[in-house]
Amino acid sequence: MFKNKDNMKRIFTFFFTLSIFAMNFAMAQNTKLTGKVVSADDGQPLPGVSVSIQGTKQGVLSDGDGNFTLTASVGQVLAFSYVGFTGQQITIPAGALPVIKLKSDNHMLSDVVIKDSYGTQAKKTYTGSAGVVKGAENENKPFSTFQQALQGEIAGVNVQINSGQPGALNQVRIRGINSITSAAAAQPLYVIDGMIVNGGADLTQRAGGTLSPLAGINNNDIENITVLKDAAATAIYGSRGSNGVIVINTKRGKSGKTEVRFDAEGGISSNLPLPDAGKPLTPDQYRSMFNEAFVNSGQYTAAQITALGTSYGLNSAGNNWYDLVTKRGSQQQYNVSVNGGNEKTRIFTSAGYFTQDATVLKSYLKRITGTLNLDHTVSKSFSIATNLNVSSINQNAPLQGSAYYSSPLASAYFLRPFQLGYNADGSINSSVTGNANFPTSSNSNPLYIAAHDVRGINNVRLLGAQTIKWNIWDQLKYTGYASMDYQTNEETSFLNAQMGDARSLNGSGTSQYSRYANWLVRNQLDYRYNIHGVEDFYVDASVGYEAQKSAGYLNTAYATGYPLTQPTLTAVGNAATPATASESTSNYTFDALYARANINYKNRYSLSGSFRRDGGSRFGTDKQYGSFYSVGGAWNIDGEDFFKKQNILTTAKIRSSYGTTGNANALANYQWRPTAGYGFNYNSANGQAYNTVGNPSLTWESSKKFDIGVDFGFFNDRLLFNVDYYNNKVDGLIQLVNIPWESGFGATQTSQAQNVGALQNKGWEFTVKGVPVKTKDFSWNVNLNAAYNANRMTKLAQNNQVNGNYWLANNYDYYTYYTRAYAGVNPANGNALWYTDAGRTSTTTNYSAAARVPYGHADPKITSGFSNTFNYKGIILALDFYGNFGNRISDSWSYYLNDGTYITGANKYQYTWLNRWTTPGQVTDVPKNVYGGGSSSNSSSGSTRFLYYGDYIRLKNVSLGYDLKNLDVVKKCGISKLYLYARATNLWTKTYDKRLPFDPEVPINGYNTEDIPQIRTITIGLNVGF
User: Fold this and answer.
1) Cβ(520)–Cβ(548) under 8 Å?
2) Which domain holds residue 567?
3) Which GO terms describe its cellular component (predicted)?
4) Domain-embedded: residue 428
């Protein structure tokens, strides 16, 4: 019996020992762990965090959502490190990993990540050139498009806000003008949450007004904006990356406490004050100048001049047309958002309302937006993400520009002060008889036009995307992405029969419907390989396939001949003559295989490379596919032992890249195809004729980009300094080349689009940012950037040719003006003089004999931004300046608005009145005021006289606010954020040409066309969070 007891003890001991061993074996067994890393400050996911197992060579990087997966054992130690954040270590527990919350290092400013459509990289190991603007920096700014807030924020990014029309298209250039085909062809590529969208072309079909395709984006929904500039950053976008890429990432939900936020802002707006030189003449000044012009002509008696003055109404009181067509505007915006979730599901949703009533008659924008971004972790290895953005826009825009008689701003200058806007009884003057009224289309009452014309557009947009992520194993991940951008536009344009541009047609009406559907799918594999035997040495590689299709549809009905007695009947069906009805489609497709790799050793040495095989329907059959690539390298000198012997520099990095990109936006959808159309009458039969010649070899414009830069951090990265030098060479510029008549295409088709031109942009970029002062109660943040760009043509289909008002020649800037050389005024008699030769050795009074010369250029050589934020115990003052230097700008209608030649057809500038020649011996640049036939009759025609210095500095934004969240009474109310502020835009502008008669911020081509001017806003607002 005892023997049996001993046996039982032995058996029990054996199984007990075995179970203990099994437990230890199980604990030592590797298991697959999934975790998430977020910022402790705001709960936002941190991409690119280094997660390693101490004592091993194993490690991974967190993905774009902060998630990571690796195989480890319970009890091992995980180390987390991230640039700009304090490192952290945890022991792996037996259960699930907690959410890792890294605290930011307040002494560091380099906590920047670069996120594009294909992944996320830490700035420290990034080999490319890119700039990042956080969305929080631009929230609540009173701008109708986010590009306005981008102005002056990043070196090398030139944003021209050349119209005060709310929602209008802005012109953006990154590192100069890289295409000469059209303004839209030179715009950068835009990407919203991974979706490549149309961002550079006007949405509207109507003439004289614009609506940006990006106007539906709510600034308050933007998490960050990344601008990609060099080949290492843009070559992955292949045939569409040549002009740079702007990547917009919207806000996403974060785990933890649900946050509710409400923002409200309202205020007033007004036109920027006219420069003294450009103010219209008062009635008394105009009357004097009118009489003087006729007297100086020597062709009229005093009685005749008096009679002329009476016929033109010079005996009436007069009015100020600029004041009549402009007004005080207003604007409001309201936003509410909810942000929250848990470890598995996170959500961000928002709704916004923005309205801006502009400072010109019948100009406004109303916008409603909604956003829903959802992230859900299905399992340890599988997650999904949903993006949904909807917007509805209603915009009304009058005809703009001096090409239209109905343009209110053009009318403000062209109408004489004695053409009265109102009758004596207060009604709008609609008389079309007599010089004192509005006898011609070119002399129309803008008040009547504003009351009767209709020019509206309704835009509805749905932008949605679905992403799935599958961690196949520790180092291999799959991402599937599908998105759609769908827009509809309903446009109505009615020009009345009484006055304006459609007067000769008895009124005109246009009804247009357009829709755009844009689909994109992407499949991508990401692999992380840790090189065995070498610590902190790894390769990140990605390979993928991407396809995109866009389909556009346009339906237009146009009619003329409206009943004059029924001005409210504006529909096309009410017209007597339905002139045209048409519909058209326009589609394009792209597809690509791409790959990208990054090699990193100890965060010290980085090498990168990308490749894309890209094809598209816009390219001719002879060259429908092309290859684009980039190589880049970076050396973080601060990782070297010798660097640690000094204490001034904290970080130091040298980087360089080279590669090729393309520009597909320089081509129209069917431009390479020979196209023909019906609708031509020939001998009473329906005939067909060629619309375009076509060219099967027509393809993208190609860009070769070189960049070298240095990044330095001083005093524990309290101060960061960046310098870049770049050289971009563009080949295959599309130009029209003459073809012989023998080709058989006839006189109407004598040219063919070919890839024959070339240009170059090279320059320098400088950025200084940091926190020069930081104490317990006070901090000062500063961001200073400047960029110098030199543009020149290097190859042309035909050298030394006149291109409108520009000189197109090798070694000249693309927008080089070509005009007659003005020599000033003869002091003896006040006659205008011009040079007869480019060397300026002799002069003439004959305008036709004057030499035309290249003179100045429209695009600026230097652009800069300077931002300061001062915070004293929650009182925050922010000042943003923008500067533009080294260009000339011109006035499209200078010959109407200067001198006496057209005294009966337009008002004049104050500079002309105050500086005109009146006395022998007087030295001035404004000739004698003469009406017709005099020796100065051409003195106001186009010449270098009307090319002005475009240099200016502008205080574009100033705000003063108080952060109340730390007050006890606020905390007791359960309020986590309470910020009150006042803001003003465009408060001050410094120009450097006293002759300049208009605001210096004009379109890229340098010409002022009397569009709606920029506005000044003064608003107050509050941000409340719970």
Assistant:
1) yes
2) 192-272+326-406+444-688+696-815+858-898+940-1025
3) cell outer membrane
4) no
Report d(CA 202, CA 219) in Å as an integer.
Answer: 20
- For 910, the enclosing helix (H) or strand (E) is helix 910-915
Lowest mean pLDDT among 270-284, 351-365, 730-744, 843-857: 730-744
Helix 283-297 / helix 302-311 crossing angle, nearest 10 deg? 140
Q: What is the pLDDT of residue 8?
A: 42
Q: Which residue has the tokens 């031109």?
A: 757
Same domain for 679 and 782: yes
Residues 464 and 581 in one domain: yes
Q: Does 459 map to a domain?
A: yes
CB 856 within 8 A of CB 887: yes
Over 60: is that where the pLDDT of 54 sits? yes
Q: Within a 10 A sphere around the Cβ of 191, how many other Cβ atoms?
A: 23
Question: What torsion do the CA atoms of 944, 948, 951, 957 make, to the nearest 10 degrees?
Answer: -150
**Structural domain contains residue 479:** yes
What is the band of 23 on the pLDDT scale with cuts at 50, 70, 90? very low
CA 373 to chain centre: 24
Last residue of a domain, one of 105, 131, 156: 105
Radius of gyration of the chain (CA): 33
Residues 849, 835: Cα–Cα separation, whole Å: 8
Sheet with strand 843-844: strands edge to edge: 822-825, 832-835, 843-844
Query: In a 3-state reduction of DSSP, which class is residue 639?
Result: helix
Q: H or E stretch including 182?
A: none
Burial code (b: 16+ CB inside 10 Å, e: under 16) for 822-858 equals bbbbbeeebbbbbbbeeeeeebebebeebbbbbbbbb
Place of tokens 């509809």: 488
> CATH number for the domain including 527?
2.40.170.20
pTM of full prediction above 0.90 = no
What is the tens place of the pLDDT at every residue in 807-816? 999 999 999 9
Residue 743: count of CB within 10 angstroms of its CB: 11
Tell me which of 84, 105, 126 is where a domain ends.
Answer: 105
Whether residues 649 and 765 share a domain: the answer is yes
Dihedral angle over CA of 489, 490, 491, 494, nearest 10: 180
Percentages of the chain per state (helix, strand, coil), in multiples of 5: 15, 50, 35
Closest CA to 583 of 607, 602, 555: 555
Dihedral (Cα; 15, 19, 20, 23), 10-degree rounding: 170
**Nearest by Cα to 493 from 355, 399, 367, 400:** 399
Give the pLDDT confidence score for residue 1013 in this predicted structure.
83
Catalogue the E-assigned strands of 378-453: 382-396
Q: How far is CA 982 from the centre of its chain?
A: 25
Euclidean distance between the first and final Cα of the chain, in Å? 76
Q: How far apart are CA 47 and CA 49, in angstroms?
A: 6
How much of the chain exceeds pLDDT 90, in percent? Answer: 63
